[in-house]
Amino acid sequence: MFETFDATLLARMQFAFTVSFHIIFPAFSIGLASYLAVLEGLWLWTKKVVYLELFDFWKTIFALAFGMGVVSGIVMSYQFGTNWSVFSDKVGPIIGPLMGYEVLSAFFLEAGFLGIMLFGRNRVGPGLHFFATLMVAVGTLISATWILSANSWMQTPQGFAMNDKGQFIPADWWAVIFNPSFPYRLVHMVLAAYLTTALVVGAVGGLHLLRRTAPLRAGTMFSMAMWMLTLVAPIQIFAGDQHGLNTLEHQPVKVMAMEGHYQSHPDGAPLILFGLPNQAEQRIDYAIEIPKLSSLILKHSLDAPLKGLDTVPRELQPPVPIVFWSFRIMVGLGFAMLGLGLWSLYCRWRGRLYTSEWLHRAAMVMGPAGFVAVLAGWVTTEVGRQPYTVYGHLLTANSVSPIAAAAVGSSLIAFVIVYFLVFGAGTFYILRLMSRPPRDPSGDLGEGPIRTAGITPAPHVASLHAGGRHGH
Question: Membrane-spanning residues where (predicted)?
Answer without folding.
Answer: 20-45, 57-78, 98-120, 127-148, 186-210, 222-239, 322-346, 358-380, 400-431
